[in-house]
Design brief:
Elements: E1 13-15, E2 22-25, H1 34-50, E3 59-67, E4 70-77, H2 78-86, H3 91-94, E5 99-107, E6 110-115, E7 127-128, E8 132-134, H4 148-160, E9 167-177, E10 184-192, H5 196-206, E11 213-217, H6 222-229, H7 236-243
Helix pairs in contact: 1-2, 4-5
């Protein structure tokens, strides 16, 4: 097991990975007891009411095993993930570790950060690095492998309004496992030649509203910005920034 990252808060964990991490589906989604299905139905219905029916019960990759060179797992229902997020104690029965991609986009003017809406289903109101989102079944390949870059580029277009050819040199940074929810954020460094004004214009024209606003922060200003964000800063963000060499480890997590 890799040593804990020095900037990782209690209950969180950073998994070290190789640059060419492989992901593969190795089993079907397991069945659940009627009682557990009923509890998930109850929690899903409550979440749908909170979100005015906007949630979609799609399929998301959940890791069963994590190693430096591979993840293996299965496609699970989003409703199960929402239930485990709402009631972390369900992890003992569900054992879900849903995978998400989290791009850290660096351009000539700095790093792109975005603030999530106050009504988001997860990490509402927090600042994080876009693009980010679940690895859903659109990333499935016929051979059972999972194309995480396809997931990342889909989020880039949907959330930031940028096409895949606007970025270059993707590099895997590590996986941050969230406390409680066991969400796995796969950090991926991205580069762009676009200036801050061009990125903001693309977001304003074609972004899907996943972020209330975008900020482009020069590396020298990151410690101050993250300190000001305080508890509204997503824990995984400074961990990935540190792994890119943009932030001293231990900065920005309180």
């Amino acid at each position: 097991m890799p040593a804990p990252h020095p900037a990782c808060p209690a209950g969180w964990h950073v998994h070290d990975i190789v640059p060419h991490l492989q992901m593969r589906v190795v089993r079907d989604m397991p069945g659940l007891s009627p009682a557990l299905e009923a509890e998930i139905d109850r929690l899903w219905a409550a979440a749908q009411r909170r979100m005015d029916g906007r949630l979609f019960n799609g399929r998301v990759f959940s890791a069963d095993a994590i190693a430096p060179d591979h993840l293996t797992g299965h496609w699970t229902e989003f409703r199960r993930i929402v239930a485990q997020m709402d009631q972390p104690g369900l992890f003992e029965a569900l054992r879900l570790r849903p995978l998400a991609v989290n791009g850290i986009l660096l351009g000539p003017d700095g790093v792109v950060l975005g603030q999530r809406p106050a009504d988001a289903v997860y990490q509402p109101g927090q600042w994080q690095a876009p693009p980010a989102g679940s690895v859903d079944i659109r990333s499935a390949r016929p051979d059972g492998s999972v194309d995480v870059l396809a997931a990342l580029f889909a989020e880039l277009r949907e959330e930031v309004g940028l096409p895949a050819d606007a970025v270059h040199d993707p590099r895997l940074l590590g996986i941050v496992e969230h406390a409680g929810s066991h969400v796995l954020d796969l950090g991926i460094a991205l580069r762009t030649r676009l200036r801050a004004a061009e990125i903001r214009a693309a977001h304003a024209a074609a972004g899907d509203g996943e972020y209330r606003s975008l900020a482009v922060i020069p590396p020298a200003d990151l410690p101050g910005f993250l300190a000001q964000a305080g508890s509204a800063l997503a824990v995984q963000t400074p961990l990935f920034l540190a792994r890119m060499g943009l932030l001293r480890r231990g900065t920005g997590t309180g």
